[in-house]
Design goal:
The chain has about 160 residues and is an alpha/beta fold. Helices cover about 30% and strands about 25% of the residues. Strands 1-6-7-5 form a 4-stranded mixed sheet. The longest helix has 14 residues.
Length: about 160
């Protein structure tokens, strides 16, 4: 029996970073991204969400907003979820798995999530089915006895349930 699932979504669509003229951390969601953020909220709104952790990037914070509103959970910006530091994200995921307890949803980036998955597969996590890291997608990580045992990719969360 799975004791805990840790969802690890990638932020929703925020357009093309190369067409954005400001600081990339300030790049907001586009129209498609707002729809994806709502779908992510649909996927987890009925779950017992205890914590929502997010990168400081505006696109991540906007992605978590619908879920935070529906669950009444205040999102927390966590340094381990920023772009460019997958080792810190992997360690955060491992810590949450060891701690067990309630559901935490972690929102991060495309350069981080595949590296976290690679590290977890080295630890013994099994992955079956589709793989990817599209905007607005999520990896669900199953935790048993403090370790991550399985990972599942949902390209369209909220539509798969």
């Amino acid at each position: 029996p799975v004791a805990l699932v840790i969802p690890l979504p990638r932020h929703a669509s925020a357009g093309d970073r190369y067409r954005w003229w400001g600081d990339d951390v300030e790049r907001p969601l586009d129209d498609r991204g707002r729809v994806q953020a709502d779908a992510l909220a649909d996927a987890y709104a009925e779950a017992p969400v205890a914590a929502i952790l997010t990168s400081r990037a505006v696109r991540c914070q906007q992605t978590v907003a619908p879920l935070a509103q529906r669950t009444g959970t205040d999102p927390v910006v966590h340094q381990a979820l920023v772009e460019g530091d997958p080792a810190a994200t992997t360690e955060l995921v491992r810590e949450l798995a060891r701690a067990g307890g309630d559901l935490s949803v972690l929102y991060s980036h495309a350069d981080v999530i595949p590296e976290v998955l690679r590290d977890l597969m080295v630890d013994g996590m099994q992955v079956g089915g589709a793989r990817g890291c599209a905007m607005g997608s999520v990896w669900e990580l199953d935790v048993e006895q403090g370790r991550i045992t399985d990972g599942r990719y949902l390209a369209h969360p909220g539509h798969n349930r």
